[in-house]
Design brief:
Blueprint: H1 2-14, H2 18-54, H3 58-106, H4 110-120, H5 130-170, E1 172-177, E2 180-185, H6 187-207, H7 209-233, H8 235-240, H9 244-296, H10 302-319, H11 321-324, H12 326-351, H13 355-358, E3 368-376, E4 382-391, E5 396-400, H14 407-415, E6 421-426, E7 431-434, E8 443-444, H15 445-450, H16 460-469, E9 482-483, H17 485-488, H18 491-505, E10 509-513, H19 521-537, E11 541-545, E12 557-563, E13 572-578
Parallel strand pairs: 5-11, 5-12, 7-10, 10-11
Antiparallel strand pairs: 1-2, 3-4, 3-6, 8-9, 12-13
Helix pairs in contact: 1-2, 2-3, 2-5, 2-10, 3-5, 4-12, 5-10, 5-12, 6-9, 6-10, 7-9, 7-12, 9-10, 16-18
């Protein structure tokens, strides 16, 4: 309950919607109290109605039927508004939580840092499938929190409302033990308590494994869905590698985990259903069996017997809330655990920002400068130690080194997204990075070209000119076409689209990581000439990573990452030279 309270408190105590949320919650509580009050009136109606039947009093019978129709109509209206307001509050709560979690997940590149943490196994239990936690777990959490908490409130209020009625109707139970006579007032209340305490203990013993099984089921389902998405995204590469049988096997294994855990879940639920069904059916006749001697002795009439049975049923239902909802409580607990661990991971990595990661691009920085850079891999392996570098306007620098030497990681550090780095770095604000694998979002081509800025910031003429300059004239007429461009465009076309973004936005500083590795030599030469001309015209500089020797002709300086044999402080060191 502490975890659930910690997850629920921000919305109701600190959010901008807190007063609306509190108002809706108060209205829902009032409607739930109204439902219980209608049930109390219904219980009182039982005595009068069944007495009228026993006495064959037709006038009272029809009067009570009219009364029942009135309270039934009021009950229906209350139930409708209770359902609507509950669903509305759940919707607003889920929307706020989703916005809040998305904002924090995306802020400071936390989404990227969490994936690095999973790779480095920095967390005891790295949060798997954050997409599923934000989309599905939040929907389930708000749903179960509202329905179960209101159900528990109903149970408590019903218990308070009916326990006095049942106490007064129970009479006194007398028995003799050891020659002494004992009397127990409110016997049906005590029997209901004993009956439900025993049922609750047995239910918890049978159903406790459901918590862990539900937690794992959500994870296995998300893993299976995630792999299906990856097969769709990399369909061409898998087909070219003839990897369909392997991926089919991987999918079968993941689905096997889903089915295996679900089978264990079913077996455990079967045991729980068996007991709760027995418990529920026995409660139907329990009150009749206990009160039958009083009825046949003429102490009570049929109406009072039915009223006792109704009151006992309400008290027993209230006390059996845990028994009746144990499987849902197990899912609620598992969902809260998943959101709590996700919340803790985001807080940990949002606050653990390295010195370089905290460095913002400087608006007035005339050049690139870094001092005392120390860069490591997520597992702690040192790549570079105490490294300094500088790039002046007009420079063109080619960064080279063996694979795995940290070239791309150095770019990530300069961009301020690599958390495993220390030192000081100053990067001009007008800097643009082209990664090895450019991101091409689905949707309209104009949006993919202008990403991450809105396409409305550029004219159609500027967008078409950028495509033409990037050697993509065949796409000039498709600006408004919507498609999965990451699958429709070849690797070379995607790289040219990334270069078209640069030509469109005209940054003065450019960092290109294998930006033309999928292009032919002639296209590479043409595009590099245009990129260099653009940054120099804007008064900036360009730093490139490339393995091809031909790229060197476009750069005046060269940085080499040289392997250190002793690797005492780091595996590589940066050596600067003229190209």
């Amino acid at each position: 309950m502490r975890r659930i309270g910690a997850l629920a408190a921000p919305y109701f105590s600190r959010s901008e919607e807190r007063w609306t949320a509190r108002g809706l919650l108060l209205a829902i509580v009032a409607l739930n109290l109204g439902v219980v009050y209608m049930l109390v009136l219904n219980n009182q109606w039982y005595a009068r109605f069944y007495d009228a039947l026993q006495n064959k009093d037709q006038a009272v019978f029809w009067r009570e039927m009219i009364y029942f129709c009135k309270i039934a109509a009021i009950y229906i209206v209350i139930a409708i508004f209770k359902f609507y307001l509950t669903q509305l509050l759940q919707l607003r709560w889920r929307a706020w939580m989703t916005r809040d979690y998305l904002g924090r997940w995306m802020a400071n590149n936390t989404f990227y840092r969490l994936e690095l943490a999973r790779y480095a196994k920095q967390l005891d239990a790295p949060p798997d499938n954050p997409d599923q936690r934000i989309q599905e777990d939040m929907q389930m959490f708000t749903d179960y929190t509202m329905t179960l908490s209101m159900g528990l409130l109903n149970a408590v209020v019903t218990l308070v409302s009916f326990v006095g009625i049942l106490w007064g109707l129970s009479g006194t139970f007398s028995f003799t033990l050891g020659g002494h006579e004992f009397s127990v007032a409110g016997s049906m209340v005590w029997l209901a308590v004993l009956y439900c305490v025993a049922g609750t203990v047995i239910t918890h013993y049978i159903g406790r494994p459901l918590i862990g099984l539900n937690f794992r089921q959500q994870r296995f389902e998300a893993d299976f869905r995630h792999h299906l998405v990856r097969v769709r995204e990399y369909s061409e590469a898998i087909a070219l590698d003839r990897g369909a049988p392997v991926e089919h096997g991987q999918l079968q294994n993941r689905f096997g985990a889903v089915l295996g855990n679900y089978l264990r879940l079913i077996k455990q639920q079967k045991n729980l259903v068996a007991f709760t069904s027995l418990f529920g059916q026995a409660s139907v006749v329990f009150a009749f069996i206990v009160q039958a001697p009083r009825f046949f002795a003429g102490t009570i009439q049929l109406g009072q017997l039915m009223q006792v049975n109704s009151a006992f049923g309400r008290v027993q239902d209230a006390l059996s809330w845990f028994v009746d909802n144990y499987d849902r409580v197990a899912v609620w607990r598992a969902t809260a655990d998943r959101l709590t661990s996700f919340e803790a991971a985001m807080r940990a990595h949002a606050s653990d920002l390295g010195e370089v990661a905290r460095t913002e691009p400087a608006a007035a920085a005339p050049a690139l400068r870094a001092d005392g850079l120390s860069i490591a891999l997520p597992d702690g392996t040192a790549l570079l130690a105490d490294t300094s570098l500088a790039v002046q306007p007009g420079d063109t620098v080619l960064l080279q080194g063996p694979s795995g030497s940290g070239k791309s990681t150095l770019f990530r550090t300069l961009a301020g997204i690599w958390p495993f780095a220390r030192g000081k770095a100053q990067v001009p604000k007008d800097a643009m990075f082209i990664p090895q694998r450019p991101y091409v979002p689905d949707g309209r081509l104009r949006d993919a070209l202008a990403y991450p800025e809105p396409a409305s910031a550029y004219t159609d003429e500027a967008l078409r000119q950028a495509l033409k300059d990037a050697l993509l004239p065949q796409l000039e007429s498709r600006l408004d076409d919507s498609d999965a461009w990451s699958q429709k465009l070849s690797g070379g076309e995607q790289q040219r689209l990334a270069i078209a973004r640069v030509l469109l936005k005209k940054p003065s500083w450019l960092f290109a990581d294998e930006a033309t590795s999928a292009l032919d030599s002639e296209a590479e030469r043409t595009l590099y000439q245009r990129l260099v001309a653009q940054v120099q015209q804007a008064g900036g500089a360009m730093v490139s990573i490339a393995h091809r020797a031909a790229v060197g002709e476009h750069h005046g300086k060269r940085w080499n990452l040289v392997h250190e044999p002793d690797a005492a402080a780091a595996r590589f060191r940066l050596v600067a030279a003229e190209s």
